[in-house]
């Protein structure tokens, strides 16, 4: 369902990739984030506007923090490793984590980076499900 929520936000509500993933995770997992929290990740869309780190991946990392992290990342043993594993899984699924490279590989005129947004959701969902079993 996470993928479907993100697709709606991305394609129908005109959110950028980072916004769509975070809003979808907030809806799906009941993170309790206020609507304005999307402003915190808006700048990550388009690889921070310059093709660097994928915004969808950044949105997934933000959602991971909201879901699993305690008060501070440094106070949460294992959170850094969780982020690293999520990035690795994302890179394995799509071949890269840099926006400019991902656009070359997966973006289309009609759907922009929808595939990347959906895969970010799939990876986040899988990662959280695996963590819940631990």
Structure description:
Helix 1 (2-12) crosses helix 2 and helix 2 (17-29) runs parallel beside helix 7 (114-133). The protein has one domain (2-133). The mean pLDDT is 95. By secondary structure, it is mostly helical. Helix content is 66%, strand content 0%. It has helices spanning 2-12, 17-29, 45-51, 55-68, 79-94, 99-106, 114-133. 37% of the residues are buried. It is globular and about 40 Å long. The two termini are 22 Å apart.
Which residue ranges are poorly predicted, with pLDDT under 50 across at least 5 consecutive positions? Answer: none
The total count of helices amounts to 7
For the record, the count of structural domains works out to 1
The pLDDT mean sits at: 95
Main pleated-sheet profile: none
Q: Rough shape? A: globular
Termini separation (Å)?
22 Å
- The radius of gyration over CA amounts to 14 Å
What's the order of the H and E elements? HHHHHHH
Q: Residue share in helices? A: 55-70%
Secondary-structure-based class equals mainly alpha
Question: Beta-strand level of the residues, as a percent range?
Answer: under 5%
Q: Please provide the count of β strands.
A: 0
Give a quick rundown of the structure:
The mean pLDDT is 95. The chain is mainly α and 134 residues long.
């Amino acid at each position: 369902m996470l993928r479907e929520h993100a697709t709606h936000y991305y394609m129908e509500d005109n959110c950028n990739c980072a916004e769509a993933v975070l809003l979808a995770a907030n809806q799906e997992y009941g993170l309790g984030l206020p609507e304005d929290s999307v402003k915190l990740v808006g700048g990550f869309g388009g690889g921070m506007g310059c093709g660097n780190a994928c915004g969808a991946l950044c949105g997934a990392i933000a959602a991971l923090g909201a879901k699993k992290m305690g008060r501070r990342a440094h106070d949460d043993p294992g959170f850094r490793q969780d982020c690293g594993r999520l990035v690795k899984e994302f890179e394995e699924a799509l071949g890269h984590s840099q926006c400019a490279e991902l656009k070359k590989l997966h973006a289309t005129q009609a759907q922009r980076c929808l595939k990347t947004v959906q895969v970010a959701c799939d990876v986040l969902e899988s990662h959280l499900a695996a963590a819940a079993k631990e």
